[in-house]
Amino acid sequence: MADSLPPPALEVTGLRKTFGDFTAVDDVALTIAPGGSLAVVGESGSGKTTTARMIAGLEKPTAGTIRLNGRGRPGVNARTSERREFAREVQMVFQDPYASLDRHQKIGDCIAEVLTLHTDLRGPARAARTAELLEQVGLDERHAASLPRALSGGQRQRVAIARALAVQPRLLVLDEAVAALDVSVQAQILTLLQHIREQTSVAYLFITHDLGIVRHICDEIAVMRHGRVVESGAADTVLTDPQHPYTRKLLDSVPVPGWKPSRVLATADTVPSVPGTEASKGDAGNRP
Amino acid sequence: MSSYQIASLGRGLIRSSRLRSFVRGHGVLAAAGAVVAVVVLASVCAPLIAPYDPNAVDVMAVSQGRSAAHWLGTDDTGRDILSRLLYGARLSLLAPAAVVLIAGVLSSALAVSAAWLGGWWDRTVSALLDVVFGFPGLVLAVVAAAVFGAGLTVAVVALSVAYLPYIGRVVRNAALRECQLPYVSALRMLGMSGWRICLRHVVPNLLPIALVQVTMSFGYALLDVAAFSFIGLGTQPPTAEWGLMVANGTSGILAGRPEQSLYAGVAIVVFVIACNLIGNGLSTRLQGETR
Amino acid sequence: MNRPQPLLAIDELHVTLPFKGQPRTVIQRVDLTVPAGSAVGLVGESGSGKSMTARAVLRLLPGGARTGGKILFDGADVTTMSPAALRKLRIHDVAMIFQDPRAHINPVRTIGDFLTEALVTTRGVRPRAAEATVTALLREVGIADAARRLRQRPSELSGGLLQRVMIAAALAAEPRLLLADEPTTALDVTTQAEVMAIIDEARAERGLAMLFITHDLALAAAVCDRIAVMYAGSVVEELPADRLHDGARHPYTRALLASRPAPGSGGSLRAIPGRPLPAYETGPGCAFGTRCSQAQEVCGAERPLPRSGGGGTTACHFPVDPLVPQATTGAGDRSTTHG
Fold first, then answer.
1. A252 within some domain
2. Which long-range contacts (CB under 8 A, 24 or more apart) does A135-140 make?
3. Span B28-48, mean pLDDT?
4. Is residue B125 packed enough to be buried (19+ CB in 10 Å), middle (13-18) or exposed (0-12)?
5. What would the mean pLDDT of A125-129 be, rounded to a whole number?
6. Which residue in the set A81, A101, A167 is minimally distant from B190, CB to CB?
7. Do A105 and B193 touch (CB under 8 A)?
8. Under 8 Å between Cβ of B100 and B217
9. Which residue among A95, A117, A148 places its CB closest to the CB of B190?
10. Contacts of B123 (CB under 8 A, 6+ apart)
């Protein structure tokens, strides 16, 4: 690779996270090109969310490096100025739209506060930029004047996206960002995310358990299981010609026309149909 | 006082339809609020409405029963009990108000900083609150009085410390939950300082919870302050104060003249109940107001 | 028609719940039949009233609810049933499986207690016999080491295992109808496939009917015989499950399918504008009218009634003819449902 090429938006190598004896993330390597889009797919306990949180700087890696746009990620306890500077590298949209916004802050103020923190815009210029950002996610001044509780889940998720985009990040981490939404609203948010990527050249790291939506938003897929990446590649290839048995099992589990649920699905590295003693793993818990 | 009367009282003050619907939906809360409002108003307007100087001794009218001249009678030095109740409300309410406000602000600051910073500071604050929780407020105040001398100021400071855990523990739990919410993570990622996140975002969201605790604690603080005065370590005679009035009246009880103790006692009980009802009502409304 | 009487027949069900002292419509109109032994999927988004419908079948509605219309179980109207008959219905005839099994099992008691309790107390089975029964049931739902599981507590089991326990509990009552309210929504997709397979097998073996409540059209189509799609408190379309992908006639059903094309299908994503409405927010016209790309003037003024056609019923003024290729609507996306 020539030196003149821009550094990848995200480059993760040897990432590892242990909680006591439990290894949540084990030797994970991921790369996202500038403006690229990678889906990390996995079930509960696969370590996908922990990976995302480490990349976002909300969790401290046990080992490994995270480089965003060629720069090392400052730690969890970084100084405010460092965090503020790094905010332009990566932002995140969370799963629960009902807890992603300060419930006592009007939507417009929420965006304006970020602009005050990160830009020189004040007064009418800031108001104009706020309106522009809200418009970009399909909201108007009526929404700007309201509190989060007046908004539906999908609208709140739009606000969370606008707030993240306000700092013009190079990478946006979307942690199950549509999982809590109604099916018809999921499609809206996914379409919105498609448009935003075309317009802004932001890169996406899309964390999801839902294979049904990844193709609409991502070019590449990494399938995680038990803390490891078991298969990765171009989205179309992985979805139509999966190599790893676990990927195949995942795909076979998605209901499609003609699908019948089967008790024992083909899988090489067996977890028998009676998984073991672990408590409260194995449920994704993604819906309210 | 019926809800309807309260509604007609307030009609001039607030848009009556709104108040009426509030009263209909929250009868108890409205009644308790009316009691508190009336008592506070009366204590503020005491110079205007009290028929006598609260400390004016009238040797000609000692220990009298109810009469047209003295609606609630007079005490053993001939002072008008109604006037002393009205004036006494000032200190009786102000002192516990100071207690819960000081305790509320201080404990909330401790609680939020503990939840935000975590680690050794959180452990220290939690341990501190647990230790203080072990001391009854009155015992702490008596000890303080023994060291620093009797007086209302000492009582207020000591009780403020004693009330820290009652507010602090609840606020800390709420703050821990609040700091775990994704919006706080989002603000951190945006590079906002901890100060700003706490003061502008976390604290306003905890305010209702802290307010409920403060209201609930107010009733108990009033009781404690009154009890402290009752045992002679708080407000000193001849100042009018409800707890002190109950104490002054005790000698009269045996003589068959329980009025002074009774009226002051009733004032304390009614006000404490009203505070608790408001606290309960607020906390119910808070739970109802989900997100 | 001389069709046999269906096991469950819901006829013009209407439900209001009190909100700030005023009745609020949560179910506008539900007509639904579940023949004995067959599975009907009740599909809808949040606020559509699908769970409320399931609760109405067992009269488990919140306090103050008012019900109109009829719910006939084996010919007896649930809405006017005596308390004794209702108890019999809940214990013997209908069993329910919920989305969150953890919330429906007492956390401090063992799985064995939970499973045997109903058998022992309400059916008078001897404890020893009850344990044998539930052990066999646990095997059937794919829990091999049943003896050990019976002594464990809910916190020691994963969500998938706990849902199997719930299924075993439901089967233990030997019901005739299974009400499954989003039973796999909280589970991983691979676990979902297994749990659905277990329900399928158990049903086939017993000739058990099922009302399957879900937000997932594709899943419902895969495991049910017929599909009823709910929107804003009304069933807007009812049709055979195998006709769903090709034969849906209601614009909402079609739009819902288009907003979730299958993973490998190549179908493009098409969003429905707006958000799903609860029944009490809808106007006098078609509830879906404000979001519908084919809405005309009459749709805003007049509520369409269910009309049969194409093997099902559709409540739409302008049902789509599935045989005619759709004209492009919106941003030029073809309304491909799947490939």
1. no
2. A136/A162, A136/A165, A136/A196, A136/A199, A137/A161, A137/A162, A137/A165, A137/A192, A137/A196, A138/A188, A138/A192, A139/A107
3. 88
4. buried
5. 95
6. A167
7. no
8. yes
9. A117
10. none
Which of A49, A54, A80, A157 is the mutation pick for testing B, counting most B CBs within 10 A? A80
The answer to whether A218 and A50 are in contact (CB under 8 A) is: no
* Range scoring the smallest mean pLDDT among A34-43, A170-179, B24-33: B24-33
Whether A256 maps to a domain, the answer reads: no
Q: Flag whether pLDDT at A268 surpasses 50.
A: no
All residues of chain B having their beta carbon less than 8 Å from the beta carbon of residue A87 are: 189-191
The pTM of this model reads 0.84
Q: Is the pLDDT of residue A272 over 80?
A: no
A155 in contact with chain C, both atoms CB, cutoff 8 A? yes
Query: Which residues on neighbouring strands pair with residue A65, listed in sequence order?
Result: A13
Return the SS3 of A49: helix
**Residue A77 contacts B, CB cutoff 8 Å:** no
Q: Which subunits count as partners of chain B given 3+ CB pairs below 8 Å?
A: A
pLDDT tens, C107-151? 999 999 999 988 888 888 898 899 999 999 999 998 888 889 999
Across the interface, of B181, B192, B204, the residue whose CB is closest to A117 is B192
Q: What band does A270 get if pLDDT is binned at 50, 70 and 90?
A: very low
- A180 part of a folded domain: no
Residue A53: closest C-alpha in chain B: B185
Are B202 and B256 within 8 A, CB to CB?
Answer: no
Per-residue confidence (pLDDT) for residue A83, from 0 to 100: 87
Q: Please, where in chain B does CATH 1.10.3720.10 lie? A: 58-288
- pLDDT, tens digit, for every residue of B65-98? 778 777 788 887 778 888 888 898 888 899 999 9
Q: Is B194 on the interface with A (CB under 8 A)?
A: yes
pLDDT at B21 over 70: no
Q: Which of B38-52, B202-216, C172-186, C232-246 has the lowest mean pLDDT?
A: B38-52
Q: Which positions ≥6 away from C2 have C-beta within 8 Å?
A: none
C-alpha–C-alpha distance, residues A89 and A73, integer Å:
9
Sort out which chain A residues have CB atoms less than 8 A from C275's CB and list them: 152, 154-155, 182, 184-185
Give the range of the structural domain holding residue A151, as residue numbers without chain letter: 101-168
The pLDDT of C199-220, averaged and rounded, is 93
Place of tokens 């053993």: B76
So where are chain C's domains?
A: 8-229, 237-314
The CATH H-level (homologous superfamily) assignment of domain C8-229 is: P-loop containing nucleotide triphosphate hydrolases (3.40.50.300)
Q: Please report the number of interchain residue pairs, chain A to chain C, with beta-carbon separation below 8 angstroms.
A: 165
Residues C253-265 as b or e (16 or more Cβ within 10 Å = b): bbbbbbbbbbbbb
Domain made up of B58-288: CATH architecture: Orthogonal Bundle (1.10)
Chain A residues lying within 8 Å of C268, measured CB to CB? 216
For residue A216, list chain C residues with Cβ-Cβ distance below 8 A. Answer: 268-269
| Contacting residues of B for A55, CB less than 8 Å apart | none
In a domain, residue A136? The reply is yes
* pLDDT reported for residue B20: 62
Is B190 in Cβ contact with A114 (below 8 Å)? yes
Shortest Cα–Cα distance, A195 to chain C (Å): 13
Contact C260 A212 (CB under 8 A): yes
- C330: CB partners within 8 A, 6+ apart: C270, C293
Cα angle: C260, vertex C264, C265; to 5 degrees: 65
The answer to whether A250 contacts C190, with C-beta atoms less than 8 Å apart, is: yes
Shortest Cα distance from B177 to chain A (angstroms)? 11
Say yes or no for a CB contact (<8 Å) between A182 and C189.
Answer: no
Q: Which residues of C touch A178 (CB under 8 A)?
A: none
Note whether B191 contacts A: Cβ–Cβ < 8 A: yes
Which pLDDT band holds residue B289 (cuts at 50, 70, 90)?
low
